[in-house]
Design goal:
- This protein is 42% helix and 17% strand.
- It has 129 residues and is of the alpha/beta class.
- The protein has a four-stranded parallel beta sheet with strand order 2-1-3-4, sandwiched between helices.
- It starts with a strand and ends with a helix.
- The longest helix has 19 residues.
- It has five helices and four strands.
Length: 129
């Protein structure tokens, strides 16, 4: 089974520009081989803490259902404000060391070039987690 973990952003919800669209398209093409794990995006006071709690609960659930041979595809890998998917990768690797994990960093160039947010070490984790 391939687990597609994605963030559904309000700005790309329902259109073809976001990772949600890609995840849903992959799931339609391969319904028997893929499962979707959606991380919501809330825009209200303390919303990011609600999302972090939901994300944590989804991670715990995923850790229980993962089996040998499964694959985890972390879309929005280095998005650190809400989902902390780089932490997901480390926890999954720790508890399921044989699973295949892919992290997709999906940024606009201005965010990726912001050296205050992401160092070369963060970007190297895409290859080494």
């Amino acid at each position: 089974m391939v687990y597609l973990i994605y963030v559904e952003w309000g700005s790309t919800k329902g259109n073809h520009a976001g990772m949600a669209y890609l995840a849903n398209s992959l799931n339609k093409c391969f319904p028997d081989e893929t499962k979707l794990v959606k991380i919501p995006c809330f825009h209200f006071h303390l919303g990011k803490y609600v999302v972090r709690f939901i994300t944590f609960m989804k991670l715990i659930f995923l850790l229980f259902i993962l089996r040998k041979g499964d694959k985890v595809f972390l879309m929005e890998y280095l998005e650190n404000e809400l989902s902390k998917l780089n932490t997901w990768a480390r926890i999954i690797r720790l508890l399921h060391p044989t699973l295949y994990i892919v992290g997709l960093a999906h940024f606009v160039p201005s965010v990726l070039n912001n050296r205050h947010l992401y160092t070369t070490q963060h970007l190297a984790l895409c290859h080494n987690f």
